[in-house]
């Protein structure tokens, strides 16, 4: 007999509380489970609670205190499964495997095992760049400690010592922040699964006795308008031109990163605008924020010069339909490496330093600010979720701005 109470449905996914009376236990009880059905496939998850048939029949209406508490425990487990289903359905393409990873995921107290599980999951989903990020953080932690640390070992004091170790290694605060954010994500996941209790959580948004992740302001990697024009006009070999032009295209296109630029398709062109989602944040953001950039004359000329002539598929002829995520990442890395190699030579020749693709993004933000564009508009153009991220790009004033501000002060 298939007895169920509490039913929830979303996007073709159904969750029910299921009294599994197919096989009786020695104490004449049956397990209560949570059944998830998707595309006619069923998966069962234990609640950890067993009931007799008589108890099950009255559980939804009972006034017995003991059974009320049991019902509340069953309901709490059901709500947990429901929330995971909602989250997966809204942020990713739902799969039972993905739900399994959340509900049946490793309950090991090992930090490194949790990293390995996360890396494997990301690789299986084709999120190679994010998997590399977690791998780098894991390798850094392994280098710092000789033992397989547990979640309970990661205290504010441990994190402060780890930060001191990274500083001693010569790491900048930007790198330290990147590693710490990966570790925090692992611990957040463990907290959601009940492995880390609220009182054990070592991170804090403000300094209340817990560890606060440092935010490095980074190097000054923005050109002013005069320097930018010199980069545009610097004489180079003809075979370098297309790589500088891709850098220029990135600058005019809101400082778009090269990965997104190479993924642009002709369908992203809507009238006089390019519209796209940042690949870096598209999968994790529940609210998908589309970025729009006006197609300038410079951008149009570069599309005409190098774009695919059939005007189908990708705009620029580097990626092709059907590539695996790993193949796609390799091509993007190779193109980015070549752009950086050529732009560094231009920057060194002009005395500006090693110009890279990151400079295009910072330069667009910096010049936009100097021309009076609001921080809000710059933030939207860069695809940031909040203004605080944009302010990191705008944090450092250029020497030119500092001198101009000083000249405005009253003289003796």
Describe this structure in words.
The protein is of the alpha+beta class. It has three domains: 3-102, no CATH class; 107-200; 225-407, Intergrase catalytic core (hpI Integrase, Chain A), CATH 1.10.443.10. The chain has helices at residues 53-58, 65-91, 96-103, 111-124, 128-144, 156-168, 173-192, 225-233, 241-252, 258-263, 279-282, 297-306, 325-350, 357-370, 375-382, 387-393, 399-407; strands at 3-10, 13-19, 30-38, 41-51, 269-270, 273-276, 291-294. Strands 1-2-3-4 form a four-stranded antiparallel beta sheet. A three-stranded antiparallel beta sheet has the order 5-6-7. Helix 4 packs across helix 7, helix 9 packs antiparallel against helix 12 and helix 15 packs across helix 16.
Summarize the helices and strands and which ones pair or pack:
Blueprint: E1 3-10, E2 13-19, E3 30-38, E4 41-51, H1 53-58, H2 65-91, H3 96-103, H4 111-124, H5 128-144, H6 156-168, H7 173-192, H8 225-233, H9 241-252, H10 258-263, E5 269-270, E6 273-276, H11 279-282, E7 291-294, H12 297-306, H13 325-350, H14 357-370, H15 375-382, H16 387-393, H17 399-407
Query: Over all CA atoms, what is the radius of gyration?
Result: 27 Å
Q: What's the overall average pLDDT, rounded? A: 83
CATH topology call of the largest domain = hpI Integrase, Chain A
Q: Please list the strands of the largest sheet in the order they lie side by side.
A: 1-2-3-4
The proportion of residues forming helix, as a percent range, comes to: 40-55%
CATH architecture term of the largest domain: Orthogonal Bundle
**Total strand count, please?**
7
| Biggest sheet features | 4 strands, antiparallel
CATH superfamily caption of the largest domain: Intergrase catalytic core
């Amino acid at each position: 007999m298939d007895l169920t109470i509490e039913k929830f449905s979303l996007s073709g996914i159904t969750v029910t509380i299921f009294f599994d009376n197919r096989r009786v236990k020695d104490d004449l009880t049956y397990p209560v489970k949570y059944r998830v059905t998707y595309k006619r496939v069923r998966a069962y998850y234990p609640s950890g609670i067993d009931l007799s048939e008589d108890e099950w029949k009255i559980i939804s209406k009972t006034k017995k205190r003991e059974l009320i508490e049991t019902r509340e425990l069953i309901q709490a487990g059901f709500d947990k499964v429901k929330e995971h289903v909602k989250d997966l359905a809204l942020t990713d393409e739902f799969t039972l495997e993905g739900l399994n990873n959340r509900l049946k995921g490793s309950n090991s107290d090992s930090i490194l095992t949790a990293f390995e599980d996360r890396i494997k999951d990301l690789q299986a989903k084709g999120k190679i760049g994010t998997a590399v990020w977690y791998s780098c953080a894991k390798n850094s932690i392994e280098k710092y400690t000789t033992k397989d640390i547990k979640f309970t070992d990661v205290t504010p004091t441990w994190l402060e010592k780890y930060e001191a170790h990274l500083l001693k290694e010569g790491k900048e605060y930007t790198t330290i922040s990147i590693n710490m954010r990966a570790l925090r994500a692992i611990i957040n996941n463990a907290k959601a699964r009940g492995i880390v209790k609220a009182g054990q959580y070592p991170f804090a948004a403000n300094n209340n006795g817990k560890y606060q992740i440092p935010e490095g302001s980074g190097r000054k990697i923005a050109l002013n308008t005069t320097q930018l024009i010199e980069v545009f006009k610097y004489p180079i070999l003809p075979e370098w031109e297309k790589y500088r032009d891709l850098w220029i295209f990135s600058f005019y296109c809101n400082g778009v990163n090269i990965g997104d630029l190479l993924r642009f398709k002709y369908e992203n062109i809507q009238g006089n605008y390019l519209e796209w989602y940042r690949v870096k944040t598209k999968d994790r953001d529940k609210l998908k924020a589309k970025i729009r950039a006006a197609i300038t004359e410079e951008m149009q000329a570069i599309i005409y010069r190098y774009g695919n002539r059939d005007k189908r598929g990708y705009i620029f002829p580097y990626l092709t339909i059907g590539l695996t995520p790993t193949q796609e990442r390799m091509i993007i890395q190779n193109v980015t490496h070549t752009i950086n190699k050529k732009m560094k030579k231009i920057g060194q020749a002009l005395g500006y330093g090693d110009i890279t693709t990151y400079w295009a993004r910072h330069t667009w933000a910096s010049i936009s600010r100097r021309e009076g564009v609001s921080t809000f508009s710059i933030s939207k153009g860069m695809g940031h979720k909040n203004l605080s991220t944009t302010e990191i790009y705008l944090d450092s004033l250029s020497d030119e701005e500092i001198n101009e501000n000083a000249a405005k002060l009253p003289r003796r």
